[in-house]
Amino acid sequence: MRKRILALILCVAIACTLFPASVFAARFETDVAFAVEGGTLYFSEATGTITEFDGTATSVVIPNKIEDVVVLKIGQSAFEGQTQLTSVTIPETVTVIEMNAFAGCTSLASIELPEALLEIKADAFAQCSALTEVIIPDGVTAIYAAAFRECSSLAKVSIPDSVTLMENTIFSKCHALTDVELPNGLTTISEYMFLACSNLKSVTIPSSVTSILEGAFAYCGSLTDIYYGGTRAQWDQIDIDMEYSNAVLSATIHCTDSAPEVPDTPDTPDTPDTPDTPDTPEVPDTPNTPDTPETPETPETPAAPTNPFTDVKSSDYFCTPVLWAVGKNITNGMSATSFAPNANCTRGQIVTFLWRACGSPEPTSTKNNFKDVKAGEYYYKAVLWAVENGITTGLSATSFGPNATCTRGQVATFLWRSQGEPAPTSTNNPFSDVKTSDYYFKAVLWAVENNVTQGMGGGKFAPNASCTRGQIVTFLYRAIA
């Protein structure tokens, strides 16, 4: 009984973490309405943030001041899903472009970023499929996860040396990208940064890079040349994760001192190819997986025998949860052979996982106020069901934000709130990145005490880290399986 109660609580909590009105930027009654040609901008005078655009304009000019208050930020999901938008003029005063600010603006062909810009947050320009060129201004220090993912027409990117942080999947599925020069000062090429950039031919990597993480260049089948800014000896010291590293290992490495030795590099690829061989015959087993939900009393049946995913190993903490989730038809992975456990989980994905985990109940109404949730989308029924059951009201009255990601701090906070905000039994805080003044402080302590979730190791909880697909299915598995 206790486990079922926890399962229900976690179901509600996972959905709620996606929709924290107190955390996400969204339009409030106190925001100022500012008329522009073809629509209305909503502006928070308190934070200097454009919180929402409501209109049909194809071109929007944002002023540098509204009501004599300087515009500093483009807020989360402010222009998300404005598919008619072809151009936006951002004022030179803007320093931050928040999460999902322009996500899904599929007609946005060009964008001029302001010189004062410091940060580009997660999914800021995700799925801007008409965008062809991005010049990131000098002064930007951080580009967060999936900022330009699935910009399928993006052919040119200029990244200044001021950028020292580049998170995972930033340029994933940017199929038009052919060459990239990474900034001097960058130390880590993050997970799946260039995932499935199918036409990427050359990459320039500075000598400051010390590690190339899992899948950084996965499925970059056209990659032939890597231009490295250091010596061959320095290149050999780089910590390269061997998962999905075929493209790196088979490319010609052009070092500053070892050009004659470069041709020897392609001899290495046979090593990473080996794991692919046993996975190939398992792919046909995938159609059998949906049969598992007919026997819920044995949720772990799919475990060892049928693992179609080459990116899910038996030693991974999320292996059993992933196979369980597939067996229960909660998810089928990103492809027949890829689950992408380290990819950020979007609001659309999570609410769908939740809906399926609860039996995929039919929504009782077709009422839908969200402009960014269309009939036919995989998450359509899940969103309607979640709204009518009071699980979420969206980011605003008209925006659900299906492509937005959620954080660990938000997950802990909304699970804690769903339990009535119980006080943790101890004030002992093992995490250096969780402060007493943080909104999630008590929630994190309570969640850890109750084994709902644990830290990331090294005395860190990583409250601002995005929840990954592997983490989400693990939370579900621990509560429901």
Task: List descriptors.
2 domains; four-stranded parallel beta sheet; disordered N terminus; globular; 11 helices; eight-stranded mixed beta sheet; 22 strands; 481 residues; Leucine-rich repeat, LRR (right-handed beta-alpha superhelix); alpha/beta
Nutshell version of this structure?
This protein is α/β, with parallel strands linked by helices.
Set out the fold topology.
Elements: H1 2-17, E1 32-36, E2 39-44, E3 49-55, E4 59-61, E5 65-66, E6 69-70, E7 73-74, E8 87-89, E9 96-97, E10 110-112, E11 119-120, E12 133-135, E13 142-143, E14 156-158, E15 165-166, E16 179-181, E17 188-189, E18 202-205, E19 211-212, E20 225-228, H2 232-236, E21 239-240, H3 246-250, E22 252-254, H4 270-273, H5 276-279, H6 319-327, H7 347-357, H8 380-388, H9 408-418, H10 441-449, H11 469-480
Parallel strand pairs: 3-7, 4-8, 7-9, 8-10, 9-11, 11-13, 12-14, 13-15, 16-18, 17-19, 18-20, 19-21, 20-22
Antiparallel strand pairs: 1-2, 2-3, 5-6
